[in-house]
Amino acid sequence: MGKKVRTQYRQNLISTLIKSNPYIRPENVLREIEPKQEVAAVLEPVKELVHERVQQLVDEVVDEPVQIPSPESIPAQIQLSLEALVDELVDILVQDQEQSFSNQNNSIKTENSNKSNKSKVNGSYSNQTREKNVNNQQSQVSSKVSISQNEPLNAAIELHNEGIMGNKQAVNSAYNSLKDLAKQDKNNLEIQAYLGSATTLLGRDANSVTDKMKYALEGLKLLDAVVESAPNLVIARLLRGNVSFRLPEMYFQRTSTAIEDFSFLVQAYEKDSSILTESEYNEVLKNVIEACKRSNQLEKASMFQNKLKTVNGEGKVKGNSTSSKQSSSKSSTKAKKNSKGKGLTDEAINIYERALNGSSLEVQEAIEFFENFVLTNSAPEVEMAYLDVQSMLGRDSINTYDMFGSAIKSLKAMDSLVNEYPSNRDLRLVRANHSLRLPENFFRRAATAVSDIEYLLKEYENDPTYLTEETYHQLLFDLGCAYERLEMIAEANETWNRLLKTKTSLSEVMQQKVYDKREVYAFQEINLSKYSTSNKDQFYNMAKELHYLGAKGSKKAAKQSLEAWENALKAYPNCEVANTYYAASAALMGKHASDPQEMFGETIKALKILKTSIKTDNPELLYLRGSIYHALPEGFFHSSDKAIKDLNAVKSAYESNREKPPISHEQYVKLLFDLGQLYKKTSFLDKAEKTFITLLKVAPESKYAQRLVSQGVNKE
């Protein structure tokens, strides 16, 4: 390939970079180009790749994404990284040009799909790769796995590979074919591995973010099971490695899995070069280098880079050399940290737990403590606790920027810390709890929680002494909740049933939590036409029960509740009960929404009705509305004052009529806790203390009283 052709490709790329990314300064990337020379348009697949890769570079260097790029505001290292990016993209085009002209566009698309976040699974796998064994153990596995020239399987694999290239129809066909083949031959691990990969491709093409997460996790579970059964099965390692490599690390935390699988393949190839083609081996090396850089394992990255140099025989490693320098700098900084320390002291643990269960006051107290504590104790557990309490600044913030900013900064730092200490159980436990605290619609961290909790449970199986029974039970329950967020209901129920079958006895509180979940998912839709609005009391009782189950978590019940109260409104348009419950049911639809836009739409609709729906001092309705106001994020809806007003009115009504109370004793206890928290949030500390003391007197054994005692509140 001559210099003239390379220069022309460079011109095409630079033209695209400058046009689509205004923060790129031509003088920093234009080389070997005449200033006035006309440039041609670059191929569409590379345009997409250029834009995606440049944005990645920006995100790596700039803490916050650049909304309105300004050349003067972009760090110089991005411009340096762009030079390396152009080199990489030119190489893509040059390699493509050296192939036959008839295959040019398809090859570029293949390279694009291999390198982009959309699909980094290798585009094709030779029969040779599928059939080779790595060692004696591999031979034993292969004797159990069908590796014959099975036409249906070969056809399914071809569809799978077309799906990797972006063919959505092929993905669906491959998935269905592989699913059928898996039913016919349940012991064929090769089929199971391809089915796992095809399932993740369904996630790639799904429209819903929830479906993307769900299918990705289902595919990973299949691939993990195959690798666990046959750790030396090459195709399973190749598929899982590439799937793990392309998944967003923020949500799935699978870079370490990719490194494990790619490292295995490199070692296996060095023993038997026939297990992979040279191009496959090349791709594995490039991917493992990138994965090591992501997780800041620079010594490993350097080792694999040397192997890649040897393979290419060029004395030059293709890729982003500047990123390597940046990562090296970051690594040096981390190396200076003293990873040793005393860890969390009893005082630190107490302050940390108070912050977790308390209000913004306890959070601020914890931050002030840890600011000094980390200076003398730099153990990773201390840093993790500090990050967690910093994240809670956003929990009670009335500023949406602070609300999201605190969480995002903390979760990124937590991910880095876990990557640095991947086997530290305490770090995994904190991150799992943190992931489940964050609203799934905004942060999509349920998959991270699943990853961490499953790791901890495996560790517990090997060493039951490292967790208390209570913590083990809570982890199982939380794992089910994480699956529930991802709408993997079968897996959630399976996990909760596993919890009920544990040999150790569950606390009454935990048993009730599990029974509540089982009640939610045991619900079957009812035939609303059997209930007539003419029998008002019966109809209202039925509709209230639907709302109750919807509030506990049943989407089906929430949907039917809204429908039932719509019917009630048609029959009784001026009824405050119908209006209030209809609004509350609309709010439930917002709670169960799968995306933020739908969530806000339904919630705002509900709030407009709630504002004027209650005409009297009906305690039942005030309690319902106050509870909704209390549950809303203050940063978005600023509803704390309204919640206090409603709940305080209900409190007075209950305390003035204990013979025939308007709400149950359990509701009253919860009301006291919520009201006290609201007082603290709005800085009415005296009122908060009085409310909490009342709670401790009327329900000293309740879970709310226990939480208050842990925060240092007492009856005196």
From TrEMBL:
Compositionally biased region (Low complexity): 105-127, 134-146, 318-332
Spans annotated as Disordered: 103-146, 313-341
TPR repeat ranges per the UniProt record: 669-702
SUPFAM superfamilies attached to this UniProt entry: TPR-like
Keyword GTP-binding recorded: no
Keywords: TPR repeat
Protein name from the UniProt record: Tetratricopeptide repeat protein
Organism: Metabacillus rhizosphaerae
Taxonomic lineage from the root: Bacteria, Bacillati, Bacillota, Bacilli, Bacillales
